[in-house]
Amino acid sequence: MSLQHYLVISAILFSLGIFAVLTRKNAISILMGIELILNSCNLNFVAFSRFVTPPENIDGQIIAIFGIVLAAAEAAVFLAIILAIYREFGSIRPDEVDTLKG
Amino acid sequence: MVVSLISIILLCPLAAFAIFALLGLAKRNFPRQDYLSTAAMLVALVCSFLLLWEVVPKPEPHTVDWISLGKITFSMGFYLDSVTVIMLIVVTLVSSLVHIFSIGYMHGDPRYPRFFAYLSLFSFSMLFLVVSDNLLGIYIGWELVGLCSYLLIGFWFEKDSAANACKKAFLTTRVGDVGMFIGMMMLFARFDTLSLYGDNGIFTRITNPEYLTADASGIFWLSIAGVLIFCGAVGKSAQVPLHTWLPDAMEGPTPVSALIHAATMVAAGVYLTARMFPILTPSSSLVIAYVGGITALVAATIAIVRFDIKRVLAYSTVSQLGYMMLAIGAGSYVAGLFHLTTHAFFKALLFLGSGSVIHAFHAMHAHHDEEHANGEEHKHDDHSLVHAHGSEIPSDQDMRNMGGLRRKMPWTFGTMLVATLSISGVPFIFSGFWSKDKILGGVLGRAMEWNSVHHYVLFGMALLAAGITAFYMFRLIFMTFFGEPRNQEMHDMAHESPWVMVVPLLVLAILSFPVVNKWWFNKDNIIRPEQPHIHAPQHAQLGPDTKIDGANFGIAFFGISETEAAEEEGEKNTKKADDAYYIHKLAHNIAMVLSIVVAGVGILLSWLFYHRRRFSAESVATTFRPAYNLFWNKYYFDEFYDGVLVALTVWKSRLFAKFDLSAIDGIVNGVATITRQVFAAFIGFFDNRVVDGIVNRVAEVTWAAGGRIRRIQTGAIQTYLFVVLGGIVLIILIFRAL
């Protein structure tokens, strides 16, 4: 398995994530798309760390760990915001939350 | 030892004042400020006496550098010679006695502690002035005593007359001080220093051709500087024409008059002139002598016709100060200092005595009771009659209300009589005779030695003034203490003063006898002031007499007989050509006889006029109406100042005000009108149309654009995200293309 394989997987994940974020009508699904994007990034970090930098340098792996932690924190905040939105608007469909419309 | 003693002398009164000032910040008074201040003065007095034995053998300056400005360094320091020490003793002694007297006199005054604090501050300032070895220090002390004088004359500032008098005193002396400061700066410009003594002092550098050449221009320059320095003394020592403040200064409490306006501060001018003696040229000396002589005569004639007991004494003080100046101007500066010393004691005594008399009458006005009743409110209805120019007299100071007091107030009468005999020049047992004789002899000796018409004229003026002095002083005594009581009501109220007031009188009375002075010191410690630095040809002329007087100062002061003095002088001058010495010896003998004669005539006339009533003063006044009017109106000095100087100032101010109102205000208003009507209108137009127009157009465009563009904001996040994604792709493509 070469670097390209990983990058291709990562690109596919990223595209799926973007697709989900742009098209899903449910906020939870959007969150899942975002998670996909983050994980594609993590995958990139680990892949580059494995194939490009010297073996003793594990910065990429470490940053991936940080990314997972961040994703968890972000998911918590996101869910809290969704809960608040639901209480306010009675819905979690982002196209219905359009108070800021110009 | 010397330095620590002098520090104690200076710091004691300063500390007494500082305690008052610091507690005053906390709005409290030290409960016994009177005892504190008095104790401080007594300590200073003791130290002054200790200093006498320390210093007499060798005078020396003690200096420290004070301020350095570039290459110039101002030093501060003490110079102690016998003259300084004598002045220290005079100041501390009179000050102590006045403090004690004031404990009685000022009792019950609502600002009682403040009075003593001011006295302390004054004592410090005066002592600082006396011991300073440089003109800067002297000037600092000089202005400080002026301030204290101002504060104390205006001590009862509720009275308009006192408030006016203190302002008058402050401003009048300031006129002289300006001259003095210019003189100091002239000396500084020439000698690069304000120190007087030491290797780099003015008195050393004056002999150095590098600084001052002894040619005509140098002497002229020095004369101008000397006269300007003397201007300060004219103001402070109340010489004609700046004497008018001193009589008005009698609005202050009487102990203040005794301390400041008789014994010490006004003598500071004499002290300064004597200190500066080495820089006086014959021309500036002559100016000083004439100012002094004219002052002595003018003030004496005014004193004849006064009825206010304090004003008689005030004019007498002016007159005696004129004597001292005359002596210095005639070259007998030691005689001047000697008269300063004796005068300080007997004139302080006269003032305190008059204070005692006024105090005795004061009770009648229920002065103190009224104060207690009204609490802080300090009423002086009895003083409200006093006009700033003194045409009306408070009844308790009017000699026409007195008479026959000698039985009521025996101690006051006795002591004042001693002082009067002394100031009148009654021979041999009173100190005033010796000092006055020394001055008259000095002036006559100068006249005979130089065969100078000027000095003969000056001698005549001094002699006449001596006779008049005897006349008006005995007039005061006869009107106050002899005859029948003229105001029975007031006479009944009068009483002898309490012991705190009588004791200082007694001490001062004892000091009016030269014998006492002899007892102070034995003959080996005779005070010999340092010889002035006599160098240039113009000073050499003043030489011999200065030296004779230099030896005589202590001799006459301490009551050593004329023969002893003559022996000493003879020994000293054997090497000299004896002409000058014998001329002066002869002059002194002539002057002594003449002074006894004129004093006798003055006293006799006074006795005939005011005791036996053989002649009527009123009829004489009527006969010589013009002269009487001249004296009564004080030579119209005040009227002259009011009519010319004040009126000129007012006229000038009016002129300036008119100029201000029409020209300056016109310009300002014109500029304002032009600005408002033309510039402001144009700018307003520009502002409204152009600037506001631009702003409004921008706003309108923005508004319209906003109305269109806002439709982009759909509120759907996913649309935004899509746009963002598209943007990113676009950016990537653009960068790829680049």
Alpha-beta classification of chain A: mainly alpha
DSSP E strands of chain A, number: 0
Oligomer: heterodimer
Fraction of helical residues of chain B: over 70%
Residue-averaged pLDDT of chain A? 90
> What is the strand content of chain B?
under 5%
**Class from secondary-structure proportions of chain B:** mainly alpha
CATH class of chain A: Mainly Alpha
- List low-confidence stretches of chain A: none
Helix content of chain A: over 70%
Distance between the termini of chain A: 50 Å
Order of helices and strands of chain A: HHH
CATH architecture of chain A: Orthogonal Bundle
Give a quick account of the main beta sheet of chain A: strands, pairing sense, barrel closure: none
CATH fold title of chain A: Helix Hairpins
Number of helices of chain A: 3
Number of helices of chain B: 30
Task: Name the features.
heterodimer, A: 102 residues, mainly alpha, Helix Hairpins, 3 helices, 75% helix, B: 738 residues, two-stranded antiparallel ribbon, 30 helices, 2 strands, 73% helix
